[in-house]
Automatic annotation (TrEMBL):
The gene is ATP6V1F. Keywords: Hydrogen ion transport, Ion transport, Transport. One of its GO terms (molecular function) is proton-transporting ATPase activity, rotational mechanism. It comes from Lonchura striata. The keyword ATP-binding does not apply. NCBIfam families: V_ATP_synt_F. Belongs to the V-ATPase F subunit family. One of its GO terms (cellular component) is proton-transporting V-type ATPase, V1 domain. V-ATPase is a heteromultimeric enzyme made up of two complexes: the ATP-hydrolytic V1 complex and the proton translocation V0 complex. InterPro entries: ATPase_V1-cplx_f_g_su, ATPase_V1-cplx_fsu_euk, ATPase_V1_fsu_sf. Subunit of the V1 complex of vacuolar(H+)-ATPase (V-ATPase), a multisubunit enzyme composed of a peripheral complex (V1) that hydrolyzes ATP and a membrane integral complex (V0) that translocates protons. V-ATPase is responsible for acidifying and maintaining the pH of intracellular compartments and in some cell types, is targeted to the plasma membrane, where it is responsible for acidifying the extracellular environment. This is V-type proton ATPase subunit F. It holds the Pfam family ATP-synt_F.
Length: 119
């Protein structure tokens, strides 16, 4: 990866992931593993969590975009991630609007600042 930047990985429903793929984020690493996961009704919770943990372990991934509805399903794994990289950002999906109260990363960031500093 010398000379190249880090990848953005994305996990979510078909419409969300397809939008990012059309934007050009789709890549395969040297082991032919994609940097995205389209979650369908048949996708098991174990596969979702395994893919998330796999993205966390990859040296070439600098950011993971995960739909908030999906992050809720694997909340313990998302909340346990404490390193700066890869950054984990929860995003809205077509059927589930973003709720800042459920975002574990945002809650953690709020804890770093006094309430009057956030205004």
């Amino acid at each position: 990866m010398a000379g190249r930047g880090k990848l953005i990985a994305v996990m979510g429903d078909e419409d969300t992931v397809t939008g990012f793929l059309l934007g050009g984020i789709g890549e395969l690493d040297k082991h032919r593993r994609p940097n995205f996961l389209v979650v369908e009704k048949e996708t098991s919770l174990a596969e979702i969590e395994e893919t998330f943990r796999g993205f966390l372990a990859r040296e070439d991934v600098g950011m993971i975009l995960i739909s908030q509805a999906l992050a809720e399903q694997i909340r313990p794994a998302v909340a346990a991630h404490a390193r700066a990289l890869p950054a984990v950002l929860e995003i809205p999906s077509k059927d589930h609007p973003y709720d800042p109260a459920r975002d574990s990363v945002l809650r953690r960031a709020r804890g770093l600042f006094a309430p009057d500093e956030l205004r």
